[in-house]
């Protein structure tokens, strides 16, 4: 006799699942529509959240959990790419500290000024409440910056590292504030946990090595980000997100950290869709909150300008400071958390949560096209910016000398390295590699390769380098848009030699060829052809 068990979901559970399906369907529709306008899909996700809110929908517990998972994995991924010594540089810690102090004073003063005109919401603010909201507005969005930098392939660039470093410093300030304001004092086990972390690190490395390359790799990331990181830190009275970040930083030096980060990328991005939806869904949309948010957005240019001035003070080039500034030109989701704590203690009304949510969303919409066109904007205002640029250069931004190089390879990852080795075997001393990441360049130099650090998408780079003797440029950077930007700058610099580039898909090959690339290489397709050719040689030699 065969027994068949049929499981029927409770009606409420079915409703909740249908709700999530509606939310993500709306996110896709809005994201797709916005993407056709050549804007980042995250703007569409935000608009979907507000549209659903206006239609009467509210965030669910499941969607909030998805959003929390996304942010936790994001911080873990940041940790995987972050070196502790990068936070010790003055352009990071000093810029972040000074900016929080100055921008908090700026926003609180602006809001107290508005209270004199008896404007709704502002009129009830005390100076303590105004300072707290100003502190919340001083942060910039980690989620937004990482998304933008990842899409542009600039996480390893100097401006990307400075921006992420400043954001991590801001997160540390926020965690300290939350610990003090909530009265949540870490217990004695917090000290035990912190002391034990260096002892656990070799164990994590051992497990990571044996997780290989399959489904165990992302599961490793899930376990250490959410269990060993988030929940372990929460249990001892520390912020869970901080735990995920620290665990990621501990794994960062491991040789498989980059592969681990890539294995989590798509899942993390899907979970973050839930985060962007919750911003719009959780906002209490009223005329007063919308007016207050618009007034706060008016002060954003001053906050943004402060970033530029402060980073420029510490000898960053004008372009580096500008691109760092654009990545931070918004308000932060962390401000919502700070205001939520303040609202729970009665320091501000709950309406301020809606104000911050709306302001964050508007600044995301403003900052997205700003970042997309950052190189174009820099090219237009470069003469003016250079007047205020420091004459001192950081080691990462020194001029590039190609000498008698005939072939230049941009992007020294696996494909670029393979190309370098093949060419160097028959034409030594004639090939040079260029990469944006200092650690990658150091690794190649130690192995005797002629590799220099530079940003191929930087217009200034093409002004500082003499490529008159270069006969071929090979674009092997992992992100398609990086190769497009580099090609645009290469053409603008008057280069007349041959150009070849890699691509992931046929439509990318077509775009590159239409821009004048002499030959393209689809490494997904060509990998199979190369393998077959290798087998033929073995069989018939």
From TrEMBL:
Keywords, in A-Z order: Antiport, Ion transport, Membrane, Transmembrane, Transmembrane helix, Transport
Location of this chain's protein in the cell = Membrane
Q: Which residues cross the membrane?
A: 14-35, 66-84, 96-123, 129-150, 162-182, 188-209, 216-232, 289-310, 322-346, 352-370
Q: Which GO terms describe its biological process?
A: potassium ion transport; proton transmembrane transport
Q: Which GO terms describe its molecular function?
A: antiporter activity
- Record's GO cellular component terms: membrane
* InterPro entries given in the database record: Cation/H_exchanger_TM, Na+/solute_symporter_sf, NAD(P)-bd_dom_sf, RCK_N
Task: Name the source's superkingdom.
Answer: Bacteria
Q: Which Pfam family name is an example for this entry? A: TrkA_N
Q: According to Swiss-Prot or TrEMBL, what is its membrane topology?
A: Multi-pass membrane protein
Annotated RCK N-terminal domain ranges read 404-526
Protein family per UniProt: Belongs to the monovalent cation:proton antiporter 2 (CPA2) transporter (TC 2.A.37) family.
Q: What is this protein called?
A: Glutathione-regulated potassium-efflux system protein ( K(+)/H(+) antiporter)
Q: What is the lineage of its organism?
A: Bacteria, Pseudomonadati, Pseudomonadota, Gammaproteobacteria, Alteromonadales
């Amino acid at each position: 006799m065969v027994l068949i068990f049929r499981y029927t979901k409770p009606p409420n559970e079915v409703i909740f699942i249908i709700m999530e399906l509606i939310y993500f369907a709306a996110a896709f529709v809005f994201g797709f529509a916005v993407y056709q306008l050549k804007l980042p899909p995250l703007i569409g996700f935000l608009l979907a959240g507000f549209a659903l809110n206006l239609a009467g929908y509210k965030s669910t517990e499941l969607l909030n959990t998805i959003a929390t998972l996304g942010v936790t994995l994001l911080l873990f991924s940041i940790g995987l790419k972050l070196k502790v010594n990068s936070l010790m540089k003055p352009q990071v810690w000093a810029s972040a500290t000074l900016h929080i102090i100055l921008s908090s004073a700026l926003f609180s003063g602006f809001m107290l000024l508005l209270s004199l005109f008896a404007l709704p919401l502002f009129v009830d603010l005390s100076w303590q409440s105004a300072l707290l909201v100003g502190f919340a507005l001083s942060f910039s969005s980690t989620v937004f910056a990482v998304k933008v930098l990842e899409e542009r392939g600039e996480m390893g660039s100097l401006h990307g590292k400075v921006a992420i470093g400043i954001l991590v410093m801001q997160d540390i300030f926020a965690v300290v504030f939350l610990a003090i304001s909530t009265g949540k004092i870490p217990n004695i086990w917090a000290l035990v946990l912190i002391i034990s972390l260096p002892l656990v690190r070799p164990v994590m490395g051992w497990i990571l090595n044996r997780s290989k390359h399959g489904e165990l790799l992302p599961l490793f990331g899930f376990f250490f980000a959410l269990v060993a990181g988030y929940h372990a830190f929460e249990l001892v009275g520390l912020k869970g997100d901080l735990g995920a970040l620290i665990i990621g930083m501990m794994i960062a030096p491991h040789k498989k950290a980059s592969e681990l980060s890539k294995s989590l990328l798509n899942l993390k991005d899907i979970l973050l869709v839930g985060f962007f939806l919750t911003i719009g869904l959780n906002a209490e949309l009223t005329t007063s909150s919308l007016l207050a948010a618009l007034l706060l957005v008016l002060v954003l240019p001053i906050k943004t300008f402060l970033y530029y001035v402060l980073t420029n003070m510490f000898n960053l080039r004008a372009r580096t400071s500008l691109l760092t500034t654009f990545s931070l030109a918004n308000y932060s989701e962390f401000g919502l958390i700070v205001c939520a704590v303040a609202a729970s203690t009665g320091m501000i009304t709950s309406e301020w949560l809606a104000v911050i949510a709306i302001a964050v969303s508007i600044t995301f919409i403003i900052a997205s096209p700003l970042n997309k066109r950052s190189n174009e904007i820099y090219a237009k205002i470069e003469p003016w910016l250079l007047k205020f640029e420091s004459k001192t250069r950081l080691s990462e931004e020194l001029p590039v000398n190609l000498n008698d190089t005939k072939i230049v390879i941009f992007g020294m990852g696996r494909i670029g390295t393979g190309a370098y080795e093949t060419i160097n075997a028959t034409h030594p001393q004639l090939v040079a590699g260029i990469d944006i990441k200092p650690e990658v360049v150091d690794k190649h130099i130690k192995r005797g390769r002629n590799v220099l650090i530079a940003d191929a998408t930087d217009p200034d780079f093409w002004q500082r380098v003499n490529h008159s003797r270069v006969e071929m440029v090979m674009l092997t950077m992992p992100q398609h848009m990086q190769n497009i930007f580099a090609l645009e700058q290469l053409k603008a610099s008057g280069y007349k030699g041959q150009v070849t580039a890699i691509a992931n898909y046929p439509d990318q090959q077509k775009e590159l060829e239409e821009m004048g690339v002499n030959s393209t290489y689809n490494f997904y397709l060509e990998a199979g052809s190369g393998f077959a050719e290798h087998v033929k040689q073995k069989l018939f030699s």
